[in-house]
Amino acid sequence: MSKQISPAENGKFEMILRSAVEFPGVKINRSSFLKKQLSKHFPESVVEKAISTNPAQAGLSIEDIKPIAKACISRETTEVTSLSAIAGIPGGLAMVGTIPVDIAQFFGHIIRVLQKLIYLYGWQELFNADEDELDDETYNQLILFMGVMFGVKSASAVIEKIAGAVALKAEKSLVQKALTKGTIYPIVKTIARIIGVRMTKQIFARGIGKIIPVVGAVASGGITFIAFRPFANRLQKYLIELPMANVEFYNQPRKENDIVIDIDFSDIVIEDLDDIDAQEESGDDES
Question: Number of structural domains, the chain?
Answer without folding.
Answer: 1
